[in-house]
Design goal:
It is a single chain. The chain is of the alpha/beta class and 931 residues long. Helix content is 55%, strand content 16%. The longest helix has 79 residues, at 2-80. The protein is elongated. Residues 1-15, 553-561 and 748-798 have low confidence and may be disordered.
């Protein structure tokens, strides 16, 4: 019974146990399967994450390789010598970089870890910025290389390499972050898997029956783990391959300096194989000087945790396997690895041998270029003196020959010879000017001057050249109301002369219009704008961008047909830029050309301003068949307040006067004067004047004749034909103002007939004006721009009579030229052949009529002009000569020669070839006033 009771009691217990065991078995199986599934998911996730980060590491590796290619063209241009092709390569690599950069950035945007994403994106963005800086420097290298400025190109290449080193370091940092992330993922996932596996083993230990299943499942998991480990090993090998293919040398050492990694680039740099160095101390790669510093750096770092080496590249000396020492750039960074947080140091290095050699070559090239520039300057100075000395004799003698009695053939040949000599001098001045501009030593003066007078003088000098080719030269300055400005009138005239000379040269027939204006700029600035328009042969449009290049001609035939150095427009361009302006050109073949330039001048206070001419209430008739000339004259007269009508021919003028005569005194604009052109078709100026004077109603009308040339006898004839005044074309504002003031404003017409008028001879042509002056306005005579104007020639000859001059000149021909010039001025001089003779002559004349002025050459044997001048100023020729005016007459016309003369004590400076008018002006300026 008891047994029966026991069985009843035990049965539910076993049943319960079985039930519990069964339930536990089921739960265990389920838990085991769930744990196994979780472990499997962990490993699969680990593999996926590792694969994804390996892909990102591969992208970074590709980006590093592309960056190497981006950096290559800027260095290779010195070998390929093809900056254009290297620039194309640079652009291609840049495009590839941009594509991969955007791919990496988009991938990083999908990271769940926002902090890590931002950190990596900032690093990659810094790399992109360094890449842009590399490209910018490389393109500057290309531009400088194309302009043959290899010194600056090398400097920019060095900057480019520093940016590349910086970007490589940044990429190494990105690689480190990725490797750390990979290892972190692996550590995290493996830790989780191990913990779950421990639970699984506990469950399997509790249930013996599940051992076989657990072992089988464990075997399955082990197989998966081996596959994962193999994958991880492959990833690590891939990362090592990335480092191994880096362009820079990469060396990893531990905290004792033992080498643990040594990539292929390092093998090439040092000449060692990796197997030879792994496990050895890195000091084997250092020079003796850097070994001690290395130990100091390590000891200081481990003591204080501080060092100035990390993160900042520096130049050190490395030692190769063959014991040769070479320069290299080293950048060191710290890396903490492993669960034990072991300290590793990663060194990125680059061989600087080639760069140093290039720098040495650049320095040598710079020294060579400087020596060449010095030799060029010395050569130009020597050639300037050697050429100008005989040129003074040639031009001077030809000028004297022209004053003798020559037949027509001799006169023509002498004129041609003198013109050729002056052309040669123009070429010499062009070359000297351009050389000074290239050297940055051309001087821009600041003088107060009347710009209308400057233009008038320039036009007078150019008018004969235009007249010889029957070209109408027209000047319009009606837009200049306040003519006094501050600037360099010599350089302004040089610009105008070059442009107008070119226009005359390339215009076979027609007209040349000079239109000038002066407008207010910012502050005290005045902007002078001038256009020179011609009706010449024109210039093809594709040639215009090259007009202002040195030695540029429209084509080779122009040099043969028209002559010239090809420097004129290049000089004009440089002069405009030196005066804070610019120049441009427009043209069409066969339609003429237009050159427009502007320069910056300064406004002058009212101390120079005179009263403008007032023609209000005066009616003037302008008669000219040239429309541009009529409009220019009309605009200027209207600016002065006159009422102006224009007539294109004599018939039109008579019709206008007939209408005027009908109005009689009721006409509000009764013509008081007429400007009449001489050369007109159908009815010329003389015929028109005869027709006007035949009517008594026009007796009080002032007739002003405009012509190109006129002699004294012509002027008398024009007066007899009824003209009140004569004005030479081209008519300038200055000459027009003078003739209007003399003939219209200051002439009382009420009580005198027109035949008794004072004839205003505002411009009479003479043979002395027929030859062209030197148009380059170089630093030949700094006194020629003096605002003082000397009197008429006859007054100068009178005031210079009796002037006692000592001419110090060693060249016999130049002595004769100067003596003849002085003789024409009524001045006689004694000669000294060098400075010693000059001192002796001055000393001998100290008691009997001492010399009052000295004309001094600079380069002479025994004692040159500089030493002689210093001796005179030191009273070595007598106290009476200490203050005597000394005017340099020298062939030295390079930059600084004027200052050298003044520093020696000379009073003034004239450059050879000597112009007689400039000599006359200098004598008048410096001669004693008590003569």
């Amino acid at each position: 019974m008891s047994s029966s009771k026991t069985s009843k009691i035990d049965h539910p217990r076993w049943h319960l146990i079985y039930f519990v065991l069964a339930a536990f078995d089921v739960i265990t199986v389920i838990a085991t399967l769930y744990l196994s599934s979780m472990i499997l998911d962990i490993y699969i996730s680990s593999v996926d994450k590792s694969s994804l980060w390996a892909s990102r590491a591969g992208d970074i590796s590709d980006l590093s390789l592309i960056l190497v290619k981006v950096n290559t063209p800027g260095n290779d241009v010195f070998e390929s010598q093809d900056p254009v092709q290297e620039n194309i390569r640079l652009g291609q690599h840049n495009d590839a970089f941009k594509l991969l950069y955007h791919k990496i950035t988009n991938d990083l945007d999908r990271l769940e870890d926002a902090t890590l994403s931002k950190q990596l994106k900032n690093q990659i963005a810094s790399v992109n910025t360094s890449k842009d800086q590399i490209i910018d420097q490389a393109r500057q290298v290309f531009e400088l290389y194309q302009t043959n400025n290899r010194i600056q190109a090398g400097n920019h290449m060095a900057i480019m390499d520093r940016h590349f080193a910086k970007s490589s370091t940044q990429l190494a940092g990105v690689n480190k972050i990725i490797r750390d992330k990979q290892k972190s993922i692996l550590r995290h996932e493996i830790t989780k898997a191990k913990k779950l596996k421990e639970y699984e083993y506990i469950i399997v230990g509790m249930i013996f029956l599940m051992i076989i299943c657990v072992l089988g499942y464990g075997h399955f998991l082990a197989k998966k783990m081996r596959a994962t480990e193999s994958w991880v090993s492959d990833l690590l090998a891939q990362n090592e391959g990335v480092i191994d293919t880096a362009g820079d040398g990469i060396i990893v050492i531990d905290d004792h300096g033992i080498i643990e990694a040594f990539n292929s680039a390092s093998e090439r740099i040092f000449g060692y194989k990796k197997a030879e160095l792994l496990g050895k101390n890195c000091m084997v790669l250092m020079s003796p000087i850097d070994r001690q510093q290395h130990n100091n750096y390590l000891s200081r770092y481990f003591k204080t945790g501080q060092t100035s080496v990390f993160g900042s590249g520096r130049e050190v000396l490395g030692k190769k396997k063959d014991n040769s020492v070479f320069p290299l750039h080293l950048n060191v960074n710290e890396m903490i690895v492993g669960i034990n947080h072991q300290t590793k140091f990663v060194g990125s290095l680059r061989d600087l041998t080639t760069q140093k050699l290039l720098e040495q070559n650049l320095v040598a090239a710079k020294d060579s270029a400087e020596q060449a520039a010095l030799a060029k300057s010395e050569f130009l100075a020597t050639m300037s003196h050697e050429i100008r000395t005989p040129m003074n004799g040639v031009i001077g003698m030809l000028g004297l020959l022209l004053k003798t009695n020559l037949d027509k053939d001799q006169q023509r040949k002498t004129d041609l010879a003198k013109t050729s000599a002056e052309t040669l001098l123009t070429i010499i001045n062009d070359i000297l000017d351009f050389s000074k501009i290239e050297a940055g030593k051309l001087e821009i003066e600041n003088l107060d001057f009347n710009i209308l007078n400057c233009i008038a003088d320039f036009v007078d000098a150019m008018s004969m050249s235009a007249h010889k080719k029957s070209i109408e030269l027209i000047v319009n300055c009606s837009e200049i109301s306040l003519p006094w400005v501050n600037g360099d009138p010599g350089r302004l005239r040089q610009i105008l002369t070059n442009l107008v000379s070119n226009a005359i040269k390339f215009t076979p027939a027609g007209e040349i219009i000079i239109h000038a204006s002066l407008t207010q700029g910012s502050g005290n600035q005045q902007i002078f704008t001038c256009t020179v328009t011609d009706t010449g042969v024109g210039i093809p449009r594709e040639k215009i961008p090259h007009l202002f290049e040195k030695f540029s001609q429209e084509d080779t035939s122009t040099t043969r047909k028209y002559g010239g150095t090809g420097l004129g427009l290049a000089i004009v361009k440089q002069l405009c830029e030196l005066m804070n302006g610019d120049i441009k050109a427009t043209s069409e073949p066969g339609q003429g050309s237009c050159f427009e330039f502007n320069v910056s001048l300064q406004q002058v206070q009212n101390t120079h301003l005179g009263s403008p001419i007032d023609l209000r209430g005066t009616a003037i008739l302008v008669v000219d068949d040239n429309a541009a000339s009529r409009q220019s004259l009309g605009a200027q007269l209207e600016q002065w307040g006159a009422y102006v009508e224009q007539a294109e021919s004599g018939i039109s003028a008579l019709n206008a006067l007939e209408i005027d005569s009908r109005q009689k005194n009721n006409h509000p604009h009764r013509f008081g004067a007429a400007l009449v052109n001489m050369e007109m078709p159908a009815m010329n100026g003389i015929q028109l004047a005869q027709a006007i004077r035949s009517q008594k109603i026009f007796d009080n009308m002032q007739l002003i004749l405009m012509g190109t040339t006129a002699t004294e006898s012509d002027i008398i004839s024009y007066r007899q034909q009824g003209f009140s005044s004569y004005i030479t074309k081209p008519v300038t504002t200055t000459s027009l103002s003078q003739v209007c003031n003399d003939t219209i404003i200051n002439e009382d017409v009420s009580n005198e007939t027109f035949t008794n008028k004072k004839l205003t001879n505002s411009a009479i042509s003479s043979e002395s004006n027929s030859s062209e002056s030197n148009t380059n306005d170089t630093d030949q005579n700094f006194s020629q721009l003096n605002s003082a104007v000397y009197p008429a020639d006859e007054n100068i000859n009178f005031t210079l009579q009796g002037l006692r001059i000592l001419l110090v000149e060693d060249n016999v021909i130049n002595q004769e030229v100067a003596l003849n010039f002085l003789e024409d001025m009524g001045v006689y001089a004694d000669i000294a052949s060098n400075g010693l003779e000059a001192l002796h002559a001055l000393h001998e004349r100290q008691t009997i009529e001492p010399y009052q002025l000295i004309l001094m050459d600079c380069q002479m044997p025994e004692m040159d002009g500089y030493e002689a001048t210093r001796s005179i100023r030191q009273a070595k020729a007598g106290e009476h000569c200490r203050e005597i005016p000394i005017i340099a007459m020298t062939a030295n016309a390079m930059i600084g020669d004027r200052e050298k003369c003044l520093a020696a004590g000379m009073s003034d400076y004239l450059a050879k070839p000597i112009d007689p008018d400039q000599l006359k002006q200098a004598l008048y300026q410096w001669h004693p006033r008590d003569i």
